[in-house]
Amino acid sequence: MMEKINEFVEAGLLKEAGTIKPDRKLYDFDATKIREVFTQFLEKLGEKGFYLATIVGTDMLKDKKIRLDYYVVVLPEEKTIVLRTFIDRENPEIDSILDLVPAALAPECEIHDLLGVVFRGNPALRRPFFVPEELVEKGIYPLRKDARV
């Protein structure tokens, strides 16, 4: 199945961006193509050919961006790859993949609550999800590097 990932690179959907520990291939993609990326994963790998382990959001205050890393396990090799994209910190929106990959529910809700990212099309987004009510009332997203808790 890993050779199929090269098809995504050749098609221009993913760009090989290096390796991160422990021996995980990193691929960049354009945030506007998130649904296309996961639709292609479903078509080329099948719903049993991969699973979404998690999504990690990181505030890149100096760059005025939020980085989103989608950790995907490719089967049957059980090889984890990281799909990375960046969105604007001032207008942090990206399409949800919840309807394509149900495992996106918890990480999308968590990133929304902690960083303020809006996953368009996710009907379960709400605050508070993990964050205490008093922080929500103050409009604080605690993982933002400029948050004053």
Radius of gyration: 16 Å
Number of strands: 7
Assign a percent range to the helix content. Answer: 10-25%
Q: SSE order in H/E notation?
A: HEEHEEEEHEH
- Reported by name, the CATH topology of one domain is Beta Polymerase, domain 2
Low-confidence stretches: none
Class from helix and strand fractions: alpha/beta
Which shape, going by the Cα principal axes? globular
Q: What is the CATH H-level superfamily of one domain?
A: NADH:ubiquinone oxidoreductase Nqo5 subunit
> On the 0-100 scale, what is the average pLDDT?
95
Describe the biggest sheet?
A: 5 strands, mixed
How many H/I helical runs?
Answer: 4
N-to-C CA distance: 45 Å
Strand ordering within the main sheet: 1-2-5-4-3
Pick out its properties.
alpha/beta, Beta Polymerase, domain 2, two-stranded parallel sheet, 7 strands
Outline:
This protein is α/β, with parallel strands linked by helices and 149 residues long. The protein is built from four helices and seven strands. It has helices at 2-10, 34-45, 105-115, 133-137; strands at residues 15-20, 24-28, 50-60, 65-74, 79-88, 93-95, 118-120.
